Amino acid sequence: MSTRPKTTYLTPAEYLAIERQAETKSEYLNGEVFLMSGATRKHNLIGTNLTREISQRLRNQPCETYANDMRVLIPATGLYAYPDLVVVCGEPQFEDAELDTLLNPTLVVEVLSKSAASYDRGDKFNHYRSVPALSEYLLVAQDEYKFEHYVKQSDDCWVLTDIRGLEAQVKLTSINCVLPLSEAYLRIKMDEPSASESKAG
Q1: How far apart are CA 193 and CA 180, in angstroms?
Q2: From CA 92, how far away is CA 46, in angstroms rounded?
Q3: Across-strand partners of 55?
């Protein structure tokens, strides 16, 4: 998730009140608040590339794309999270009148880092999977040209496909769009140092 939680336990209402005034972002689960750490150049470039390309492909569809700052609540588990990118198709549903906490994501995208990759593949994905509206989950590597593409099946099982190489593409069926890896990794060179990558979430 991120750095160590603060020791004070908060209710969801207390967390939201503080979070809406804070200059930094924090995720929340079971009374604990987890400060989000900063993102690297690679992370920012990949996130920007993904947001641009997916938004352009959806400009004539009834979908909205939110990058980085849209909070998502998983009602079944109580996790408040900040995906790197989230798409909702159809009417977006929010927790309250502030319209800053989404309830019904269609697609969630996370850019992996060394510190958060296990969490994104494991516990965080378990949280996301409990959202009925979610149809696809896309994990984007920083240390190689690779997508991990999870698609929900009719029996609620999820199927994983590894997609590798700049010549490859991913078909995001839930939002009716095809995304080449070359577009996601525009200006990204894999020989750049990545040991210090620490983005969480």
Answers
A1: 24
A2: 25
A3: none
Helix (H), strand (E) at residue 13: helix 12-19
| Strand-pair partners of 127 | none
Tokens 């996601």 label which residue?
184
Q: Is 119 helix (H, G, I), strand (E, B) or coil?
A: helix
CA 22, CA 26: separation in Å to the nearest integer?
Answer: 9
Which pTM does this prediction carry? 0.90
Residue 200, C-beta contacts closer than 8 angstroms, at least 6 positions apart: 1, 2, 3, 34, 36, 37, 113, 115, 116, 119
| Residue 141 one-letter amino acid | A
- In angstroms, rounded to a whole number, what is the distance separating the alpha carbons of residues 32 and 54? 33
Residue 175: phi and psi, rounded to 5, are -120, 10
Low-confidence ranges of the chain (pLDDT < 70): 1-7, 192-201
Helix (H) or strand (E) holding 52, with range, is: helix 41-57
